[in-house]
């Protein structure tokens, strides 16, 4: 247990800098504290580890970014699908309106023929 100069217990954090990658150190629990550096938790890494770990971290970040690309594509396709569904609903409503209009026109046509037949038979006696 390490106590900071401010009297609080120190936290163990991990460094991700290129100089000291994945090396643990003691830090003050207060963010942006003015407490000084106490020391490292573990021994320094060898030179080879210092050169390999940053490259591995870059590879991990590249792979994670590559994994996010299909998710973006899926989200874009879902948005396009939702747009097409709304257009389909709009066209279906328009189709229903046109079917209603067609039905009305058929009824007017039938009524006009019926009136025509009544007029014809009233004029020409049988």
Write up this protein.
This protein has about 130 residues and is mainly alpha-helical. It has two domains: about 1-45, no CATH class; about 50-125. Helices cover about 60% and strands about 10% of the residues. It contains one helix and two strands, in the order ββα. Strands 1-2 form a two-stranded antiparallel ribbon. β1 and β2 form a beta hairpin. It is rod-shaped. The model has no long low-confidence stretch (mean pLDDT about 80).
Rounded average pLDDT: 82
> What's the number of helices?
1
Main sheet makeup: 2 strands, antiparallel
What is the gyration radius calculated from CA atoms?
40 Å
What class, by secondary structure content? mainly alpha
List the helices and strands and how they pair.
Blueprint: E1 11-16, E2 21-27, H1 47-123
Antiparallel strand pairs: 1-2
Question: Main traits of this protein?
Answer:
61% helix, 2 domains, two-stranded antiparallel ribbon, 126 residues, rod-shaped, mainly alpha
Summarize the structure.
The protein is mainly alpha-helical.
């Amino acid at each position: 247990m390490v106590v900071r100069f401010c009297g609080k217990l120190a936290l163990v954090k991990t460094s991700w800098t290129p100089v000291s990658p994945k090396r643990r150190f003691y830090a003050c629990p207060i963010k942006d504290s003015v407490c000084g550096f106490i020391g490292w938790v573990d021994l320094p890494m060898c030179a080879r580890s210092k050169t390999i770990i940053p490259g591995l971290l870059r590879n991990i970040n590249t792979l994670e970014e590559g994994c996010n690309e299909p998710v973006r594509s899926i989200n874009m396709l879902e948005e396009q699908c939702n747009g097409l569904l709304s257009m389909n609903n709009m066209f279906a409503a328009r189709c229903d309106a046109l079917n209603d209009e067609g039905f009305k026109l058929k009824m007017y046509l039938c009524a006009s023929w019926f009136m025509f037949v009544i007029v014809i038979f009233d004029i020409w006696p049988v």
